[in-house]
TrEMBL record, chain A:
Protein name listed in UniProt: AzlD domain-containing protein
Transmembrane segments: 6-24, 36-60, 80-99
Source organism: Paractinoplanes lichenicola
Keywords noted in UniProt: Membrane, Transmembrane, Transmembrane helix
Pfam families: AzlD (PF05437)
InterPro entries: Brnchd-chn_aa_trnsp_AzlD
TrEMBL record, chain B:
Lineage of source species: Bacteria, Bacillati, Actinomycetota, Actinomycetes, Micromonosporales
Similarity comment: Belongs to the AzlC family.
Organism: Paractinoplanes lichenicola
Main location: membrane
Transmembrane domains' residue ranges: 12-35, 41-74, 124-149, 155-173, 180-213
UniProt xrefs under Pfam families: AzlC
Identification of the protein by name: AzlC family ABC transporter permease
Length: 102, 220
């Protein structure tokens, strides 16, 4: 059952990945749609970043994680190198938790 | 051009290091959840989608059906991703069949940040192969370390993932309409998270596109 679940998830995911690429080839997209698609991708990525920052399951994630992400986002906005952004975000969250702030 | 390559290689190395760490957490968490050793390996190669894999690990033991549905919902974003990416990976069947499997949030973000088609293709494959390799290497490390690295929250890795995404999205958010769409969508997704099943809230972010209707109607 577990094996079947993983295989189905894998095939389904691959189908959607390839499907998007092939649909783009088959369908003549209007200029409007060409403009909309990167926006749709940006919306999904931003939503993934926002939900994984603020939410844990269906509740709020607490203080440490959003604070860590905020530090990372600020550094990214100031055009800090990618690795600095990632490490600073993790370190901030880890230090806050070490101090007992969840 | 040489500077661009160096920046790309540096970014690839940075994200590879992050992926090894997150992949290691994934492997260790899967073991901590009592799943068989082959499960994280199979997921990292066959599914190769971080968010869905973490989600699936949490649900797999209790309900494989829920794990599949939630994972597919979470991964449905790859359909518009694929349409946005199009032939960035190349136009031959071989490139599209193999390249599609390497499609992840990070690859899409890196690729869309490039304007030149040649540079896009190079970026797609470099980041895609780097991520696939580092993700699976990390998974193997995590499984080996078992529960030792299991507590990824102590290491703050849960904050590293969204921060990395934000760093990647920021350039495309400099365009004002895109920013309005993305932030509206993100707000909808966050508000929907407590009430909708996992995966759906992120898809609800597409409602942010409705903000584009307003100025068009005003112009007409």
């Amino acid at each position: 059952m577990m094996l079947a679940a993983i295989i189905v998830l894998g095939i389904g995911t691959y189908t959607m990945r390839l499907g998007g690429v092939l649909l783009r080839e088959r369908i003549e997209l209007s200029d409007n749609l060409q403009r909309l698609l990167p926006m749709a991708a940006a919306a999904l990525l931003t939503a993934l970043a926002a939900t994984s920052t603020l939410m844990a399951g269906s509740g709020f994630a607490g203080v440490a994680r959003p604070a860590g992400v905020a530090v990372g986002a600020l550094l990214a906005w100031r055009k800090a190198p990618f690795v600095v952004v990632v490490v600073a975000a993790a370190a901030t969250a880890a230090l806050l938790r070490l101090a007992g702030i969840e | 051009m040489r500077t661009i390559q160096r920046t790309l290689l540096r970014d690839a190395a940075a994200i590879a290091a992050a992926m090894v760490a997150v992949g290691a957490s994934f492997g260790a968490i899967a073991i901590a959840y009592g799943l068989p050793v082959w499960v994280p390996f199979l997921m990292s190669t066959v599914v190769f989608a971080g968010g869905a894999q973490f989600l699936a690990v949490g649900l797999l033991a209790a309900s494989p059906v829920a794990a599949v549905l939630a994972g597919l919902l979470l991964n449905a974003r790859h359909l518009p991703f694929g349409m946005a990416i199009g032939s960035s990976m190349g136009t031959s069947w071989r490139e599209r069949l193999i390249g599609s499997h390497l499609m992840t949030d990070e690859v899409v973000a890196f690729t869309l940040a490039e304007d030149d088609p040649v540079q896009r293709r190079r970026t797609y494959w470099l980041i895609g192969v780097t991520l696939f390799t580092s993700w699976n290497l990390g998974t193997a490390l995590g499984v080996l370390l078992g529960t030792a690295v299991g507590d990824y929250e102590t290491l703050g890795l849960d904050a590293a993932f969204p921060a990395a995404l934000i760093a990647l999205i920021l350039p495309s958010l400099r365009d004002r309409p895109t920013r309005v769409v993305a932030l509206t969508g993100a707000a909808v997704a966050v508000l929907a998270t407590p009430v909708l099943p996992a995966g759906l809230p992120v898809l609800c972010a597409l409602l942010g596109l409705l903000t584009l209707l307003r100025p068009r109607r005003a112009a007409a």
